[in-house]
User: Fold this.
Amino acid sequence: MERIIYSSPIYDKLVVGPSRITGRGLFAGTAVAARAKIGEFEGEVITIREARRRAKGRRVVAIIELDRKAIDATATGRGFRYINHSCAPNTFTRLTQDRAEFYALRRIRAGEELTVDYGLSHHDGQLPCQCSAAQCRGWL
Assistant:
């Protein structure tokens, strides 16, 4: 599988490549300091109603719901669309009315896969988790 390298306006390098968790993942191209902002979720801005319609029946959902709208990154081929879930994540998401921003929970090594705890998701506890963390909850 090809590896895609790109720069975000906030962070030097992010790499999309094969993930040990599932499909493609997002990786740190260089080390990231603890609590550093890594970047933002990018995509089409849609209503929450439309987001839920689009997510219904999909195994892979690249949508984040904000307060009154949602961002659908399905059509984008880069970025945080590829961040995988982990029950022991190394990033967290800060939601505002307009954005979903990703920050490092701890120092992240160059080459390490970026992961986030999806929390409540469109899968409603029906999708088996594949993160393999010691404290894995088992479902998304």
